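Researcher: Go.
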Amino acid sequence: MVEIRRQKVYRQTATVKDVEQRFKTAVVSGFGKDAVTDEVADGWWITFTDSKTGIRCETKPDVQPGDVATCTWEFHKP
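Model: Structure:
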């Protein structure tokens, strides 16, 4: 017997606040006081004016501040 459960789907719209490439400090060689660090790319980030959600992209997205995004969230029971 297979039980079919109703899927929960939610839609969230949000206005793009910023699109920026972020960097992080990474150790490239050595340890402790002898460690050598460098700033390395951490991807492109999209943030929103009306949501705490942020999206990380590997490449620069074709998005501008003021654009409206629609996210669809689907939740499934295991």
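Model: The first strand starts at residue 8 and ends at 29.
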